[in-house]
Every structure is written in C-alpha cells, then in structure tokens.
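User: I'm writing a short methods note and want a consistent example. For Transposase IS1193D, I'll paste the sequence; you return only the structure tokens, no commentary, since I'll be parsing the reply automatically.
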Amino acid sequence: MEHIKNSTKLIGIKDLNIKISIVLKHQTRIEIRAELDYPAPACPHCQGKMIKYDFQRPSTIPILDVQGMATVLKLRKRRFQCKVCRRVSVAKTSLVKKHCQISQPVWAKITQLLIEKQTNMDIAKRLHVSVSTVQRQLNAFTLKENFKTLPEILSWDEFARNKGKLAFIAQDFETLRLFLTVSTLRSTLVEP
Ligand SMILES: [Zn+2]
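Assistant:
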C-alpha cells in the first residue's frame, strides 16, 4: 500500500520535480499544464557550474486518463546553462524516456494490456496512442539469451492476436513478470 499525498502522484506521475500549474477541462479532453524544475546540477559536458536559464516550449505528453477522459500533460522543462562552457541542457525526468513523447505509465499500461491479450487496436484506442506505438512496445521487448534465471513457477498460455495469429506468452506466476512472448513471426524475451 502506498499513501498518496499529492495530485501528481494521483494521476500516475512519480517525478516530484513536476509541478502542476493549471488544469483545463475541455469538452472531450483534459489538459494539465506543468513545469519540470529542480536546482541546477553540474554541467553534463564539463562538470562546470550551471545556472537556471529558461523553460523549453511545452511538450505534449499523453498520460493515463483522468475522469475517463483523454489527458495530456503540457510539460515545460527547465533549461540550464553552464557558466563555463556556455552549453544549455534540458532538465531530465523519469516520466518520459529520451526522445520519447509517451509517458512511462502509458508504456506500463500498454504492457499490461498486451499481457491481458487485448488487441493492438483496442489498446491504441483505449490509451489514445497510435497502433504503431503499441506495436513498438511489443517490439521493444528485448531478446536475452540467458535463461538461467527462470522463475520458480512459470505460467504460460497461447492466445490469438491480431486477426487470429497465434502467440505465446510465459510469465512468472508470482510476480507476473513477463518472460517470453512468441508471435508467429518472432520470439522475444521480455524485460520487466
Ligand atoms: Zn559546461
């Protein structure tokens, strides 16, 4: 059990450096404007002292639905400038991976729904992402050759995916961690 103390955590955002500034409820969607900010770290290029600079223009990040409505986070990220080498760096967050606009809670939900055997199209519709995004998550499961660490109890199942093609999954019975998915085209071992 976790005691949730703030509204960012309530909507699935764990990064406490993200602060909500305003929430707008439109006809069919919710827009949450927020800022990512924290004290200036050392310069990633020269380790020199950085100072706060300005904010990047907002990036639009889909998060999980709030009140059953499609919800986006308009996130402005702090920029820092190095006083030594003058280079500018953007604040980092665990919410989104580098060069990615889909938030981690959405990726986690895609994974969960894939395990629950929902079709790519249903998942895409439910989470307001493209079918190719869902496919990308399926493909992102990386292959590991090492099978030495198989779980004590392994459960597996076969199921129909995408127009009746058969697929196979294996997962740790206790932790539900996905171990292996095999579609008709490829086989992949899944990272947690
Ligand atoms: Zn520097």
